[in-house]
Amino acid sequence: MTEPSTAMAGMDSSAFVTSAEHQSGGPGKPRSLWSDAWRDLRRRPLFIIASAVIVLLVVIALFPGLFSSVDPNHRDLDFSRQPPSGDAWFGYDLQGQDVYARVIYGTRWTLLVGVSASVLTVLVGAFLGILGGYFGGWVDGLVSRIGEIFFGLPFVLGAIVILNLVRNARIDGALPIVLAVVVSIAVLSWPVAMRIMRSAAIAAKQQDYVKAARALGARPGRIIFRHLLPNCLAPVLVYGTIALGAFIGVEATLSFLGIGLRDPAVSWGVMISDARNYVRVAPHMLLFPAGFLTVTVLAFVMLGDAVREALDPKLR
């Protein structure tokens, strides 16, 4: 092997210290997995684009009045199925309702279903998965068998059964209907999050820091929440981000089938369902809500892929 160059040999050792401090964020402050992931994410154009789209959608959902002053439920049959114009950018639907206003106000309900279903799915799945992965034995066997039962249920069929039970109970109001859709999605989706968390917990409990905590007499609750959970959270969060976009599409599918959201709730799925019989004569009724739905799902999927690649060193 050749000897180091003169320039390398003449460098002051402080240069290496400065470089190390820069890489670690300062003396004695090594960067965590999350800080490394954030530095990597900020350099990804897809992450920036997806984040910008999602932030815009969140603003629309929180403050729809900033984007439209028209009542989304106002009906005037004189404007039925009229195409886009200066007065109505997206045209009117069959009932003479402003499609643009309904798309804007429908963002709130669509995101509410997606976010709520994703959060509930991750909470239930992660809780059961980390219990099964840490304790093993009969606990792991019980959790795994229950998960396999729900995992084997056909999603659409299971959702139809659950939501038809709610419909037969004659529950009225937008929020109860939204809650029923969220619960049905979470009940049929939590086994995936459980399996991801279970695998991460099984791998993490073999690490030295968990063995050291157990040897020092730490209780299982402290080990799970202080040691296992922070180190098992990344893959579940990635799944939750990607699933959020998928659940938005699921809500549209259920609404299209007539078992999801319905009046007085306004969502993109409801609008697509209302427009399915008028695609040829009034395509604008379908194209605009479907376009917003597609962009939203793609944004969350791209965000989840970017986060997954940033958190997995093998994919960098």
Topology:
Blueprint: H1 6-9, H2 13-24, H3 33-41, H4 45-62, H5 99-135, H6 137-151, H7 155-168, H8 174-204, H9 208-215, H10 220-256, H11 268-275, H12 284-311
Fold and architecture overview:
With 316 residues, this protein is mostly helical. It has one domain (44-315): MetI-like (MetI-like fold, Orthogonal Bundle). It is built from 12 helices and no strands. It has helices at residues 6-9, 13-24, 33-41, 45-62, 99-135, 137-151, 155-168, 174-204, 208-215, 220-256, 268-275, 284-311. Helix 4 crosses helix 12, helix 5 packs antiparallel against helix 6 and helix 10 packs parallel to helix 11 (268-275). The radius of gyration is 25 Å and the shape is elongated. The model is unreliable at 1-28 (pLDDT under 50). Residues 107-304 form the ABC transmembrane type-1 domain. It comes from Actinophytocola oryzae. Its main location: membrane. It is found in: Cell membrane. This is Oligopeptide transport system permease protein.
Based on the model shown, name its key terms.
12 helices; transmembrane helix; 316 residues; MetI-like fold; 70% helix; disordered N terminus; mainly alpha; BP-dependent_transpt_permease
Short description, anyone?
The chain has 316 residues and is mostly helical.
Shape estimate: elongated
The CATH topology corresponds to MetI-like fold
Level-2 CATH architecture: Orthogonal Bundle
- Biggest sheet record: none
The helix/strand class is mainly alpha
Keywords: Cell membrane, Membrane, Transmembrane, Transmembrane helix, Transport
Membrane topology: Multi-pass membrane protein
Transmembrane segments: 46-67, 109-137, 149-167, 173-193, 236-261, 281-307
Family: Belongs to the binding-protein-dependent transport system permease family.
